Structure formats: C-alpha cells, structure tokens
Amino acid sequence: MKRMGLIAAAAGAIFLLTLHQDVGAASSNTAESYKQLDLFGDVFDLVRRDYVDDVSDETLIEGAISGMLTSLDPHSSYLNAKNFNDMKVQTRGEFGGLGIEVSMENGLVKVVSPIDDTPAAHAGLKPGDLITQIDGTPVQGLTLQESVDKMRGPVNSDINLTIRREGREPFDVKLTRANIKIQSVRSHLEGNSIGYIRITSFNEQTDVGLNNAMKSLKQQANNKLAGVILDLRNNPGGLLDQAVAVSDAFLDKGEIVSTRGRRADDAQRYNARPGAKPLSGLPMAVLINGGSASASEIVAGALQDHHRAILIGTRSFGKGSVQTIIPLAGHGAMRLTTARYYTPSGRSIQAKGIDPDVVVDAAKIDHPPTKDDKSESAADKKDDKSESAAEQSSVDPSIMGTADDYQLARAVDMLRGIALFNGRVVN
C-alpha cells in the first residue's frame, strides 16, 4: 500500500504538470511517466527488502530526489531542512564552516573561490583546485551536498582535504573550521586619489557596505578622487538583487542583466535607475579572475558592455545560471536551475565567463633576494617553476589590496594615466 501511495502521489504531481501541455501530448507523456514510476517502485521495493542494511523510507526518497536534481547540472540540488536553514543563515553573511565556495566537476569538488579571511583562504586554497578526499574519504561517488556536509562541522574542529592542483602532485591541507562572519565590502585609498573597493561576496549587507565605502573614500580624498577600482577577484557571487544594486551604483541608465528561462514570458530584465550616483563619471577599473563567478560576472559584464569600466585580470569562472530556491513544505527546499544570465549585449555567461579588456596575470612582484632566498635548493626552484602556470590565473588572497598585488598595481597605473590625460591631479 505504501508503494502504491508513493507512485500515485508522484504520478498525480506529473499529471498536474502536464495540464499545461497539449492534451494529446499530456496523455502520452503521462502514460510513459507511469511506466517509469512503476520502475522506480520496483527498485524502491527491492532496496527496502534486500539491501544489506535497514534504510528508512525517508532516506531512500531524499536520495532519489537528490540524485534526480544533481543529474541535471552541478548547481541544482536538494536541501533537507537543516541545509535549507544553513543556506538562509549564509546569505545573511554569517555562518560556520571553511569559507569556501565549491561546485562539482567530473565527480570531484572544485573550488570556485575561497572567501577572504576564512580558513580556506588562510590555508592557501585557490580557484580551480580540486578536492579529491575529505578526511581520507574519496569525494568520487558523493553528491556535492554530501561533500559539503562532510566539510561542515563544529567550530574549532579540524579537517584534512586532499587537493589536486594543476602543475603539482596531490597534497594534503589541514584546516580548522571557524564561525565565519563575512565583511563583504572593504575599501582604502591607493595614494591620495584612487579609491579601492573590494567586494568578497554578494550577501544581504553588500549594497549598504558599498554605499558606506563610497562615502568614506570621497571624504578621505577630500572629494578629489581621480578614479575607482572595483575588485571582484575570488568573489563567488551570491544574491542577484545585490549584483543589480552594485551595478546600479555605477550606471546612470540601461540594462544591467536579463534572465531567460524555458518559457519566453518568464524572461526578466533589470535596469539601472536614473539619479545622482556617488562616483558617477569617475574613471573605473574592475579586477576579475577565475574565482569571479555568478553575481560577480553580472556586475563585470554590465560595466563592460556599457563601457563604464575597463576590466583587468583573467577570464572569470563562467557560472551564468539562475538557481531558484523552492521551499518544500516540511521537507526543506530544492535549488533548481530555472534560467540563465545574459549581459546587456546579449552574451551568455554560462561556461564561457567574462574576458577582461586587459589581460594581466597574477604575477608576483619581485623583491631583492635575501640570503635565505639564495640558499634555495634546486628542488625548491623546480617546484616553483611547476606551480607558475596555475598561479598565473589565481592570486593569493593574502596579498589582495597590498603593495604585492601585481594586478592591482597595473589597475592603479592605468587609472593614474587616464587621470593625467584628463588633466586631473593624481598621486
């Protein structure tokens, strides 16, 4: 009876969905769906009866739902009640864990970006790193959510990750979980006239943080800013409305982004609002790299298409799909890909990313060698050489915004050149 009820409920749901389709097609689809549901019921019964361990029906059903969603794309997934609550906490800008945004690639967990001042950033994880084992357990065969669950745990507890990085042999990294509070916007002056704003993620606090940063920079420069740098490197994205708000802060008019789904009438367009903007008219550079994803790419694409800023760095990650969180009464929620992002010029970001206007690799600024540097072994030099290719498209989070930040230095030089050409006084 339980099995029949399960099949009937699922079939009923499919029947309701097909009411929106052509009647003839709906009948055909429903008949085929009943056959597939009968197959599911057979497998469900066999597992309950013959599997080596006793497994609850809830576990089996949640596993089936999770498998269905994760088979669609790397970003669709099932969230049980606990994970759904964790996600809501994370978007508010405070959560526990490692501070790392991840996706799935060929059965392995891929690092999209470590978040500034988190265990992942301090451990030196880089965008593009592949996590192959978690505390000695292979990731292959686990869903993305199962892998994330394994990386979560009590604050101050340790975890070991095995990392595969291009140009290196696999290596282990030990991290200590922490309660992570994200300050998503930071700023300072470069010299006395170039404003630097770094956005580490797009959470509910980002637009307020950006407005405060812009006001602070103008005050520090005595209203004599010559240019502004927006740093979106290693920013894994976040909330769409925050990406729109950040873009709007620098655009006077025009489209920011559009989303297009399965049905033409579901398309949405988001536009900049007219009105005075704190940094309107100032020369602008945007820093991006392979860790810039999703909401970061929306901002970068909009500013590039409107010729509002010059993009500097390396190609962005290429996550241009829209995930809608759909609550399931009493059962958590599902994260379902429902649309794709398009820049104002109609470019799709998905799997392509945003190409910078000026390619600047994350090369290190050379300093005079010290005595210790001269005593490096040949093996050490060989390792450095093998790592160089991977490091060209990544940047150590600890040097972002510092004197050792090569990409930032090039952006500052460019803005100073523009300011001098325009007759502005810069230093």
Overview of this protein structure:
This protein has 427 residues and is of the alpha+beta class. The protein contains twelve helices and 19 strands. A hairpin with a 2-residue loop joins strand 5 (130-134) and strand 6 (137-138). Helix 8 (240-248) packs parallel to helix 9. The longest helix has 28 residues, at 23-50. The radius of gyration is 24 Å and the shape is globular.
Task: Please give a quick description of this structure.
The chain is an alpha+beta fold and 427 residues long.
Structural class: alpha+beta
Beta strand count: 19
CATH superfamily placement of the largest domain: 2-enoyl-CoA Hydratase, Chain A, domain 1
Shape, principal axes of CA atoms: globular
Low-confidence stretches: 8-25, 370-392
Key traits:
2-enoyl-CoA Hydratase, Chain A, domain 1; Pdz3 Domain; 6-stranded antiparallel beta sheet; 3 domains; 6-stranded mixed beta sheet; globular
Map the helices and strands.
Elements: H1 2-18, H2 23-50, H3 57-70, E1 77-79, H4 81-91, E2 94-97, E3 100-105, E4 108-114, H5 119-122, E5 130-134, E6 137-138, H6 144-151, E7 158-164, E8 171-176, E9 178-181, E10 185-190, E11 194-199, H7 206-220, E12 227-231, H8 240-248, E13 255-261, E14 268-271, E15 284-288, H9 295-305, E16 310-313, E17 321-327, E18 333-342, E19 358-359, H10 371-374, H11 378-391, H12 406-421
Parallel strand pairs: 11-12, 12-15, 15-16, 16-19
Antiparallel strand pairs: 1-18, 2-9, 3-4, 4-5, 5-6, 5-7, 7-8, 10-11, 13-14, 13-18, 17-18
Helix pairs in contact: 1-2, 8-9
